[in-house]
Each structure stands twice: as C-alpha cells, then as structure tokens.
C-alpha cells in the first residue's frame, strides 16, 4: 500500500500525492541522498504485466534524460521496488494548466499563444531526440509562478493506448486530446503531438474541449470523423487560423513541425500583447528607452525654435553666432532663476551685420527704363512743336513783308524799285503785266 512516508529505492521518501492519471500517481518526495525535493511518478502495477513494458519504459526514460531544454522536465532516476516501477523527475513549483482552466475557464488569446509557443518549443526538443510525447494535455503542462511552462510525462501512453480507450474513467482526459491517426490505430508521430497541442489551444480559447462523449471510445471516434465546433467570435482571425491548421485531420495538412507552430504562436502572442509592434512597414519606430522631455522654449533672448543651442553636441553642424544666454546660478535644472535686482528688459536678438554684394549696373528696374523713354519722347515732341511754331511765325512774317512792299511801289514808292520789281515780275509772268497795265498807268 502506497502512503506518505514510504521509501522507494532506499532514498526517495514519499511526502504527498500531488497528481494522478491513467498511467499512475505523482508524488512529491525527498531525495535523502542529495537533500532535494523531487517528483516521483509511480506506474500502475497492471502496466508491469505487459511483456517488455518495464524494459521499454526504462530505455525511454534514459533517452528522456538526455534532453537538455528548460521547457522539458529533467529526469533524474528510474527504479523498481516492491513490485513497483517509478520514475524520479524534477519537482516543478507551480500549477498544472488543467487546474488553471478549471478555475478561470478561458485564457486570453495572447496568453494562450504564449503558452502554446513554449510547449511547442519543448516538443521540438523531444522530437529532435527521437521522442514523441503521445500524451500532450493540460495536466502534463506545468506553469511556474513566473509564467514559464514545463512539459512532463514523456513516452508513457504509447504502449497502453488500447487499455486507455477501453477503461472508462481512467483515461478520459487522454482520449479528449488524442490525434485521429492514433485513434485509428496508427503509430504516433511528431504530427500527433502537434494535433494534441492544437486541442489544448482550442480548450484554452473556448473553455471546453472540441469533442465530448459518454465513453473515451466515442470521443476518440469524433476526433476521426467530426469537425470541432467553431471557436468563439471574439478570437482574432490569426489565432483561429493557427488552431484550425493544428487540428487538421490529415497529418500532412498540419504545421510541418513543432518549431513552426512555436514560431507562429509566438508572433501572434507578441502582436496581441503589443499592438504597436504590428504597425505597417515604413511607420516610424518608437524608441525603446525612456524619452526625455523636450526643452522648454526660452521666453526671450534665446534662439528661435529648432535651432541648436550653443555647445550642443551636433557634429558637423554650423553654429550661428548666438549671444550668450545667462544661466541660473542655483536652483533645479531647467527652473527659472530668481533675479536679485530689478527685472532687466530683454533685448531682441540682432543678427550681426553682413556686407551685401554690389548689384550689377544692368540690374535696373523695368519701371525706371520706361520712365526715361517717356521723357525722351516728350522732349522730342516739344522740340518739334517749337520748330513748327518758329516756321509758321517766319512764314507769316515773310508774307506780311511781301504784301507791304508791293502796295508801296504801286501807290507812290520809289519809282526805280517799283520799275525793277515790275520788270522782274513781267519777265517772269507776261500775263501778269497785261492784267496790271491799267493799274500801273494810274
């Protein structure tokens, strides 16, 4: 009879029964040789009656001890005593995932994906060593207080598969997570562990297993023939797609490996926990460290916003000749100093004089050139008017003189001059003489 205080192998003292399952009971014990707490799994006596089971299980325990991974429980020892076979493993502080689900019902998608990623990493470490777990379920996933997960109970379910499916009550949990190929009698593969981990994820997200039934055989056949009920509507599409692929009936349609499942689950957990990291490509990234507050803009006397302050460590940047800014002698950094005398009116900042290059002579304004042309035209017009007036005055003056001279010769002027003019006019125009003969005789 197994009870607290029983010693196995001459060194392992059983302290308290902490769990039980279809393959046996798990006890918390003490290793009196090394003085450490251990977990002792005692196999059911009925399993030892199977030919070759004890020897096969011992070989698998040795293989499991070679796995060096933080997510896989360490195997310390294997032995038999008083017709009992037992396995000594690392004692993990924490609760089984099954207890957590019975207490809270459901987990958030981000938390579920984080746990699935850790469990898949542990399975990949086992698969790399040629070990298939064959019994992945929440009861074999232990969660430490810090949130890390440890996978336990490797390599026990394979040899007792038929007994588990026919003995009611002893393996109900295992039948609920069995893969379709295992339920059909095929050999379990790493893809079988991927399917069982998909069932665990389904339960964490929905709060129930995908299939229920009156007997383990009925439940196992549903894994082969039926499709699970859809996940709740509040599950993100990316998480839903991950679980649906893991639950594919065809092993070739599932995730190709446990490491592939771990990668997509970890990415989904990160995007759900930090939505800012899922931004589109090209968006500016936020700094990882604390962001220091921007310096306050000076009230007066300082440079304008955006210009580097004197002494700023900007390599290669030109520094304008800013006037020195007075610094407070005492007080907190960034606080305004208290003046000791009357307030001094701040002077506006004036940039130093910089000589301007001489402008070229031809760079005149179009307006001045047009004004000069107008003046020249006006001057020409005035000159023409003056010449025209002078010509008119001279013409009128000559006409007046000509008329005055003829009248004098005709009426009684100098006869000699009159005769000369008449003779000249007569020679030029004989008809004029005939017309004026009468006048000349008068």
UniProtKB/TrEMBL annotation:
Keywords: ATP-binding, Kinase, Membrane, Nucleotide-binding, Serine/threonine-protein kinase, Transferase, Transmembrane, Transmembrane helix. PROSITE patterns: PROTEIN_KINASE_DOM, PROTEIN_KINASE_ST. Its EC number is 2.7.11.1. One of its GO terms (molecular function) is kinase activity. The chain crosses the membrane at residues 374-397. Residues 297-319 have a biased composition (Low complexity). Residues 273-368 are annotated as: Disordered. Gene3D superfamilies: Phosphorylase Kinase, domain 1, Transferase(Phosphotransferase) domain 1. The keyword Transferase applies. Coiled coil: none annotated. Pfam families: Pkinase. The keyword Transmembrane helix applies. CDD domains: STKc_PknB_like (cd14014). It is an enzyme of class 2 (transferase). Residues 12-272 form the Protein kinase domain. PANTHER family: MITOGEN-ACTIVATED PROTEIN KINASE KINASE KINASE 20-RELATED, SERINE_THREONINE-PROTEIN KINASE NEKL-3. This is non-specific serine/threonine protein kinase. It comes from Paractinoplanes ovalisporus.
């Amino acid at each position: 009879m197994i009870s607290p205080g029983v010693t196995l192998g001459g060194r392992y003292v059983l302290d308290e029964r902490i769990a039980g399952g279809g393959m046996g009971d798990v006890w918390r014990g003490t290793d009196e040789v090394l003085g450490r707490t251990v977990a002792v799994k005692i196999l059911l006596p009925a399993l030892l009656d199977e030919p070759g089971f004890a020897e096969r299980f011992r070989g698998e325990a040795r293989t499991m001890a070679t796995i060096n991974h933080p997510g896989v429980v360490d195997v310390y020892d294997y032995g038999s005593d008083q017709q009992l076979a037992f396995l000594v493993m690392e004692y993990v502080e924490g609760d089984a995932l099954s207890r957590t689900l019975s207490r809270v019902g459901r987990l958030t998608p981000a938390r579920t994906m984080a746990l699935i990623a850790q469990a898949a990493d542990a399975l990949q470490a086992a698969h790399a060593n040629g070990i298939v777990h064959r019994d992945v379920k929440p009861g074999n996933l232990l969660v430490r207080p810090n949130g890390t997960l440890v996978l336990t109970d490797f390599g026990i379910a394979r040899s007792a598969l038929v007994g588990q499916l026919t003995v009611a009550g002893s393996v109900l949990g295992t039948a609920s997570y069995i893969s379709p190929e295992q339920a059909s009698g095929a050999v379990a593969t790493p893809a079988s562990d991927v399917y069982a981990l998909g069932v665990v994820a389904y339960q964490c997200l929905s709060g129930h297993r995908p299939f229920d039934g009156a007997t383990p055989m009925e439940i196992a056949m549903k894994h082969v023939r039926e499709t699970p009920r859809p996940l709740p509507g509040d599950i993100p599409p990316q998480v839903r797609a991950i679980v649906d692929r893991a639950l594919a009936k065809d092993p070739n349609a599932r995730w190709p490996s446990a490491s592939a499942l771990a990668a997509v689950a970890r990415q989904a957990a990160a995007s759900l926990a930090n939505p800012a990291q899922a931004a589109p490509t090209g968006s500016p990234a936020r700094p990882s460290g604390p962001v220091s507050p921007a310096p306050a803009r000076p009230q007066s006397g300082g440079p304008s916003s955006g210009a580097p302050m004197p002494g700023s460590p900007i390599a290669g940047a030109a520094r304008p000749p800013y006037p020195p800014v007075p610094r407070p002698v005492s007080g907190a950094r960034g606080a305004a100093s208290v003046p000791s005398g009357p307030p001094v009116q701040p002077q506006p900042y004036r940039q130093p004089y910089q000589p301007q290059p001489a402008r070229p002579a031809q760079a005149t304004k179009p307006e001045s050139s047009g004004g000069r042309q107008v003046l020249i035209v006006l001057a020409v017009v005035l000159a023409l008017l003056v010449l025209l007036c002078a010509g008119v005055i001279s013409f009128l003056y000559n006409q007046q003189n000509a008329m005055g001279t003829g009248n004098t010769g005709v009426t009684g002027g100098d006869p000699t001059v009159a005769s000369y003019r008449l003779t000249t006019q007569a020679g030029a125009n004989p008809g004029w003489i005939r017309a004026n003969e009468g006048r000349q005789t008068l």
